[in-house]
Amino acid sequence: MAQTNSDIRYLTPIAVDVKKKKYCRFKKLGIKYIDYKDAQYLYRFVNDQGKILPRRLTGTSLKYQKKVAQAIKRARHIAIMPYVGDNLRDNK
Asked: Per-residue DSSP letters for the chain?
């Protein structure tokens, strides 16, 4: 007795990873200028250690990733954001 594909039964459903499509939030919302004085917004692009998150994680396009990096660096320079993130998420 040969089994066909319809006879195969699984105890648990097969896990199929459906990844959410990444998009550039700046293009979608029509943001032209990234304000370096808005530290709360810039914290979205920085991890717990204070490092700038890469494009592959945030989904930001190259054009706006450069602008985000420049804004974060300017905010760090005038001491709005820290260079090193000791409990960075708590300070928001």
From this structure: -PPPGGG---SSPPP---PPPP--HHHHHT-----TT-HHHHGGGB-TTSPBPPHHHH---HHHHHHHHHHHHHHHHTTSS-SS-TTGGGG-
Q: What is the pLDDT of residues 7-58, one digit of tens each?
A: 767 677 667 777 788 889 999 999 999 999 999 999 999 998 889 999 999 9
CA 29 to chain centre: 16
CATH class of the structural domain 21-91: few secondary structures
